[in-house]
Protein: ATP-binding cassette domain-containing protein
Organism: Elioraea tepida
Amino acid sequence: MSEADSRPPKIRIRGLCKAFGPKVVLDRLDLDVPAGRSLVVIGGSGSGKSVLIKCILGLIEPEAGTIEIDGRNVLAMRRAEREAINEHIGMLFQGGALFDSLPVWENVCFGLIAKRRLKRREARPRAIEILAQVGLGPEVADLSPAELSGGMQKRVALARAIAAQPDIIFFDEPTTGLDPIMGAIIDALIVEQVQRLGATAFSITHDMASAQRIADTVAMIHKGAIIWTGPASEMRHSGNPYVDQFVRGSTEGPIRMEVRR
Ligand SMILES: Nc1ncnc2c1ncn2[C@@H]1O[C@H](COP(=O)(O)OP(=O)(O)OP(=O)(O)O)[C@@H](O)[C@H]1O
């Protein structure tokens, strides 16, 4: 058993419920995110992956359940306590979510300037150091994100996600919109940076090749609950008909039958 396996989970979710009107999105969801490991949640469109991340980040309030981070239920915390926890969390949003009105260096250090009061004159050289960690040179620092390719924008978004040296990082479909080679490059960078920081990674993706590359553990969400969890190496032969169908991208199987009804 490795050291990581003997540690309590970094994030422990129990009985999480969220509905929008009559639509139940999370249905008594239980999930452990092992400390210092990389968990990838897979699942179909509309299965509740983004809502789950938003609940953990405190952007959506669930109706029931607990979310413990380092053993403390964040749902019961006051706003200031919750914000203090979020300062140790990095996030790579789907599509990058960079501000085109700010140069790249300011995007990278946005959180450090706003929350950690890093001075602007110190932020620019700091941003250049962080950009180097994701393979971007100093010439990129003063460009607008709009001037960069999709792959470079992802690198900048990754630089921003790691800038505050977070101990948990969320990746929301990190390879969406990238060609397969650039997707593999971004995945390798994610793995490298998560390991360098010793962080816990929580990702959601539709991209099975990406899941295989970045995950230690894979969890499948279906109809608002986790229906399978296992090592990434077992994802392609889980023996679970839902996982098998999803991984193969097959139109035949239990998921289709439910859609048909
Ligand atoms: N703010 C909201 N108000 C109403 N319904 C919402 C809201 N946010 C999400 N939903 C609904 O919750 C369900 C789950 O959405 P979610 O975005 O979590 O899916 P997902 O698994 O991330 O899908 P995808 O892979 O397509 O991004 C969807 O039916 C969606 O329409």
About this structure: The pocket of adenosine-5'-triphosphate is lined by residues 20, 25, 43, 45-51 (CB under 6 Å). The longest helix spans residues 180-197. The chain is about 40% helix and 25% strand. The chain has a mean pLDDT of 89.
